[in-house]
Specification:
Helix content: 10-25%
Radius of gyration: 32 Å
Largest sheet: 12 strands, mixed
Distance between the termini: 44 Å
Shape: globular
Low-confidence stretches: 421-427
Strand content: 35-45%
Length: 427
């Protein structure tokens, strides 16, 4: 009897151990499967993320029109890339990675920052100095030394690729938010894309006869939303004035002067960007600001103002000499590809005046705008002739910019999407 009971117990324990052993083996198999799933899924995610960086590198260093050649074999997996252009200055990158039977997708929206987001942005300082009486608002950047003569004031964040250089021991610039070193991004823009946009929905002024003569345009913006303009081809005479609604003249807001110059003043009610190209003519590609150029709804009073103006010159933006002009306003985002904001014959003005600027100034180089002397009583350099910057950054440019205004070269991710991982039910 005792032997039977012992045998039954042995058989029972054997059965239990067999059952539990099987369960333990099944658990081990599940653990291995889960580990394999997580590993393969994680690798697929890493590869998809790598694909995004491959796309950004090619867009930023090779060409903004770069298109992928799929697939991209990486670390035992394959990555498939797609790049779309949902709007001007935007790219959507879709990266799909396959690794050991698992797939992961990463979608990124990348944006080029507008140059208008800077209060001031310059390629080089040359022999020009930020000086006493100059006040700079918004972000200030130079792909060079920032050179200071006397006591200029920098109200916003300051970045430079080289550092700050003082003119002498009497120079004490004020950096209200400090300064730091930052990498370079050249002052450049794509005239071709602007030209195409102007032909497709804007306004183009050019010599349409095929003689390739220079085209000059005069534009006075009126506070009722209209523009009074005339033009001259080559050495011909000026056309009769025409008055037209700004929205009808350039529905998409882009006015393009091909191989020519534009002379502007007035009060703009609406949105526009004016571009001048030179096409090899040293006397073309200039925006001349004859007198006050302002918004109908002043953002200093109405922060919700929707009036926007961009001035884009392939040569330079110039304030022509006018001894009778006195103080004046200039409200716009300004971009000067091969020059800066130039005050013609600044030392010939009878006194020192104020150039009240609201917006952004982006140029290849800083331009001298006034003559300075040392004042022994005030113990600082003071302007005696020409114009001093009284500059305020237009804070609306943090979020918006004039139509088709030039953008920095680099695409930066602004939105990053990764799908949720779902663990499959193995049992």
């Amino acid at each position: 009897m005792g032997g039977k009971i012992a045998l039954i117990l042995v058989l029972g324990f054997g059965s239990l151990f067999a059952v539990f052993g099987l369960k333990m083996l099944e658990s081990q198999n599940v653990a291995v499967d889960n580990y394999a799933f997580y590993f393969n899924k994680s690798q697929a995610n890493y590869l998809a993320t790598s694909g995004v960086h491959i796309a950004l590198t090619n867009l930023n260093q090779i060409s903004h029109t770069w298109t992928p050649t799929n697939p991209y074999p990486i670390a035992g997996g394959d990555v498939y890339l797609a790049v779309n252009t949902p709007s001007y200055g935007m790219r959507t990158i879709r990266s799909v990675a396959h690794y050991n039977g698992r797939t992961d997708t990463v979608i990124v929206t990348a944006k080029q920052k507008s140059f208008a987001e800077y209060g001031n942005y310059y390629q080089v300082f040359n022999n020009v100095w930020a000086a006493t009486g100059d006040t700079f608002s918004g972000k200030f950047h130079a792909n060079d030394w920032i050179q200071c003569y006397g006591d200029p004031i920098f109200l916003g964040q300051v970045t430079t690729t080289r550092g700050v250089k003082l003119y002498d021991k009497n120079s004490f610039p004020e950096f209200h938010e400090g300064w730091k070193l930052q990498s370079s991004d050249p002052v450049q823009f794509d005239t071709t894309s602007m030209r195409l946009a102007a032909f497709s929905g804007g306004k183009v002024f050019r010599d349409s006869t095929g003689a390739n003569r220079r085209t000059d345009v005069k534009m006075t913006f009126n506070s009722d939303g209209t523009v009074t303009y005339s033009y001259k081809i080559g050495s011909g005479s000026w056309s009769a004035d025409e008055i037209v609604n700004l929205s009808a003249l350039a529905p998409n807001g882009l006015i393009y002067v091909e191989k020519g110059n534009v002379y502007i003043q007035g009060t703009i009610n609406g949105q526009a960007t004016i571009v001048t190209s030179h096409r090899g003519d040293s006397n073309a590609g200039i925006v001349y600001v004859d007198n006050t150029m302002q918004y109908a709804s002043d953002p200093n009073i109405n922060p919700s103002s929707t009036d926007l103006l961009g001035l884009v010159a392939e040569r330079r933006i110039e304030i022509p000499f006018d001894a009778s002009r006195g103080d004046f306003k200039l409200q716009a985002a300004m971009f000067s590809m091969n020059g800066g904001l130039t005050v013609k014959n600044y030392a010939s003005y009878p006194a020192a005046y104020k150039m009240d600027i609201l917006g952004s100034i982006i140029g290849r180089n800083v331009e001298a705008t006034a003559k300075y002397v040392w004042n022994g009583t005030l113990k600082k350099y003071v302007p005696t002739n020409g114009y001093s910057y009284i500059h305020r950054y237009d804070k609306r440019f943090d979020l918006t910019a004039p139509p088709f205004f030039p953008k920095l070269r680099i695409f930066v991710p602004i939105a990053w999407y990764q799908g949720q991982v779902q663990i499959p039910a193995f049992y």
